[in-house]
Amino acid sequence: MEPMPGVRTASIGVWVNAGSIAENASEAGATHFIEHLNFKGTPTRSAKAISQDMDSVGGNINAFTAKDCTCFYAQVLGEYLPTAVDVLSDIVLHSDFPSEELEKERHVVVEEIYMNDDSPEDVSSENATAMYFDGDPIALPILGTRDSILSMSRDTLLDYRDRHYCGEELVVSVAGCFDPVAATELISKAFAGARPGACAHSTAVPVRKGGRKCGFYEKDAEQIHITLGLQGCPRDDDRKYALSVLSAVLGGSMSSRLFQTIREERGLCYSVYSYGMSYRHNGALMLYAGTSAKNAPTVLSLMLEELGKLRKDGITKEEFERTKRQLRGNYLMGLESTQAHMNVIGKTLLLQNREYLVDDVLTKMECVTMDDILGIIPAVCDESQIVAAFAGKTAGVQKEIERVFG
């Protein structure tokens, strides 16, 4: 819990230690499907009543599924926190997956898969992730596939839910305007009925196959969407702070190398950026750019050229100092909402089993040195491990792209 003086809202999240990486072949997409079904009714609330109860107090309720967790969350005015706790605990602990609602929601999830497939940017990112993490459950899509969702039985979903939605797999986080003593009593009472025990998580460390790979995904789109996958850091590896600096230098802002080189100097794209992914055993750094088919080989060449410059020359002192200030500012500004605080304290406790302390993170960011950056560049920019995914009308330029990628 984190009270935040001066705000009038409270955000609460119920975090479940279940994501797509926990699924087996017969359960592909089950975690996300269950996230949907938890809103479809309990013994005391219909799906409509769940929405109405939150709307009646001016609150928002939603959920998301990630590769390593699921979160159900709400934001309300502080005085209505009891309503949010009541609704969230009801849908997490008591949803009963009514058969009629399940069948309707099955098709909603399939439509979400279709929607994702209609976004070449998402297709590029998803396939770069699949190629980079090949051999690791992280490679599997969160949504599952059309076939896996259509064939999944109610019994399979209930069994998965009962194994993962138990007391030792849940974290409740709350931030904003509330009384800590009253909130502790309220939450403890609401979740007292959680199933006892914990899920038997696999302790095996997945082995990523690795290697340089290139994939093409033909889509009817005006642009070709390019995603490059590079080596990253696991969640508990402190090198991730150096990696965040390197990512920002490459594509984290309007002053970044990729933005300046590809958009500002050459005018070859509108969107170009970088982002990191960190999980228990593995991580990745992704670079993205969207451009026209005729410009795709040139944009790819410029992206690879920037990686080559990093391997050869590293980064400048000016880039290093500017980027550290940028990251510190972005980090603190990003924590100015109750939902941001709720997210970070809940996810840290769930996945890292520790309290989240803002000053600790700031200290680790500040302690990053130029030598730390230079130390990770050889692995991050390793030419033998780069993967590339291209989504769009790629047929006419595939050979040229393959030539550039090598």
Explain briefly what this protein structure is.
Helices cover 47% and strands 17% of the residues. The chain is an alpha+beta fold and 406 residues long.
Topology:
Layout: E1 2-3, E2 9-16, H1 30-37, H2 47-55, E3 60-65, E4 70-77, H3 81-94, H4 99-117, H5 120-132, H6 146-151, H7 154-164, E5 170-176, H8 180-190, E6 213-218, E7 223-231, H9 239-251, H10 257-265, E8 272-278, E9 283-292, H11 296-313, H12 317-333, H13 338-352, H14 358-366, H15 370-380, E10 387-392, H16 398-405
Helix pairs in contact: 1-7, 3-8, 9-12, 9-15, 10-11, 11-16
Low-confidence stretches: none
How many extended strands? Answer: 10
What is the helix content?
40-55%
Q: Beta-strand level of the residues, as a percent range?
A: 15-25%
Major sheet size, sense and barrel closure: 5 strands, mixed
The largest sheet has its strands arranged as: 1-5-2-4-3
Could you report the average pLDDT, rounded to the nearest whole number? 96
Fold and architecture overview:
With 406 residues, the chain is an alpha+beta fold. 47% of the residues lie in helices and 17% in strands. It has 16 helices and ten strands. The chain has helices spanning 30-37, 47-55, 81-94, 99-117, 120-132, 146-151, 154-164, 180-190, 239-251, 257-265, 296-313, 317-333, 338-352, 358-366, 370-380, 398-405; strands at residues 2-3, 9-16, 60-65, 70-77, 170-176, 213-218, 223-231, 272-278, 283-292, 387-392. The strands form two sheets. A five-stranded mixed sheet has the order 1-5-2-4-3, sandwiched between helices. A five-stranded mixed sheet has the order 6-10-7-9-8, with helices on both faces. Helix 9 crosses helix 12 (317-333) and helix 9 (239-251) crosses helix 15 (370-380). The N and C termini lie far apart (51 Å).
